[in-house]
Write a structure and sequence with these properties.
By secondary structure, the protein is of the alpha+beta class. The chain contains 12 helices and 7 strands.
Length: 384
């Protein structure tokens, strides 16, 4: 038989129509294709059909709602903490890591009576995470080694009560007071011992780097004696208007009116003897710059406004540069600048070589800020 799949009762030319007719005949024979007995049966069939259609439509919309909720949860809660934020060689940080770090430092600051400025902190602390990891990886090369004993010693320095001169002390009592004070700090800030030990380790490493770089600072350096007027960036007074005032008014009197107080300047804007690198943005005005063809300010001359991230400065030199011994304040300021330069150069070198990367944009910035605000520890500031 050439076509064994054809039924014995049909020919090869029967076709679809013949098969349908045969099927209907079989159904009629078995009673499956019988018409409804009455109108009630018809109405019931229509009702069942409508209910099935309604269930299908409802299920479809329910699936859409569940999908939208699931996608929103993924976008807002699951995905952002796991988004890659930065890396140093094979060590990576996520946005969740960044939020955790800011919360740790926020707890410490709140306990000490300070606050974190959320308008600029997220990106700065991402950089700090990167800086800390760069230093951690470079420490063996630099000869920096922070041990657990060093961390414990610094913790005791911060939380171990000091005995009054001549007072007898019980070592066991001091130990109990240390544990009580330290545990109270951890409870108030919501931190764990391991969290705070990481912060202490990074601080000690940074101090060691500062000590290492400070060895290059000469005790005797060329310095100029200056006054300045420091004005906030958001000031309503234009610095150029202040320069015009100084053409007819004494610098000290205007400084007493407009200068922003700081640890480096007195009420009348007196800063004192300043070396190179203490205030890098002011060096060109104070000491000149041969490469740029800039001459230093003459004695009594007032600079044009100098715009920096710390504010707008107007400088007057009151004594020509001369070799002088460096003050402790300026030695510390130069050290801070050296550390920041080291961090900046290490970050730039790592980025150029592809060993350091960062991922940050306005949307991620907004998410980090919101999470830090929502989960901020509500603790009272430390009372003295």
């Amino acid at each position: 038989m050439p076509f064994p799949w054809l039924p014995w009762s049909g020919s090869s030319n029967t076709g679809r129509g013949g098969r349908r007719r045969t099927l209907r005949a079989q159904r009629r024979a078995t009673g499956e294709d019988a018409a409804p007995a009455n109108a009630a049966d018809v109405q019931e069939m229509v009702g069942r059909r409508q209910r099935r259609i309604g269930y299908c439509i409802g299920g479809f919309f329910l699936l859409i709602i569940v999908g939208v909720v699931a996608f929103g949860y993924y976008q807002e809660f699951y995905k952002p903490p796991r988004v890659w934020a930065g890396s140093v060689r094979n060590v990576e940080f996520t946005m969740g890591d960044l939020v955790s770090r800011i919360r740790v430092l926020q707890g410490v600051n709140r306990y000490q009576g300070g606050q974190i400025n959320l308008s600029k902190v997220p990106f700065e602390y991402l950089q700090n995470l990167i800086h800390a990891e760069i230093l951690r990886q470079q420490s063996p090369v630099l000869g920096i080694n922070v041990t657990d004993e060093d961390i414990t010693r610094d913790l005791r320095r911060q939380f171990l009560p000091e005995a009054e001169p001549g007072q007898e002390t019980d070592p066991n009592q001091l130990e109990r007071e240390f544990n009580a004070s330290y545990n109270a700090f951890l409870t108030a800030t919501g931190l764990s011992d391991s969290d705070f030990r990481i912060i202490i380790e990074e601080q000690l490493s940074l101090r060691a780097l500062a000590a290492l770089l400070s060895r290059s600072i000469e005790d005797i350096q060329e310095q100029a004696e200056i006054l300045w007027i420091q004005m906030p960036l958001e000031s309503d007074i234009l610095p150029t208007d202040v320069v015009r005032r100084l053409e007819n008014e004494e610098f000290v009197r205007v400084a007493q009116e407009l200068n922003t107080p700081s640890q480096f300047s007195g009420p009348g804007g007196y800063v004192g003897w300043v070396p190179r690198m203490a205030f890098p943005d002011l060096d060109d005005a104070i000491f000149g710059n041969e490469e740029k063809g800039l001459s230093p300010l003459a004695v009594g001359e007032v600079s044009q406004p100098i715009f920096t991230t710390d504010g707008n400065f107007i400088v007057q030199v009151i004594s020509s540069p001369e070799e002088r011994e460096l003050s402790d304040t300026m030695a510390l300021k130069v050290t801070v600048e050296l550390v920041e330069n080291w961090q900046r150069e290490a970050l730039e070198d790592g980025s150029t070589q592809g060993k350091v990367r960062m991922n940050f944009n306005s949307k991620l910035y907004e998410w980090v800020t919101e999470q830090v605000f929502i989960t901020a520890p509500r603790v009272e500031s430390r009372t003295q």
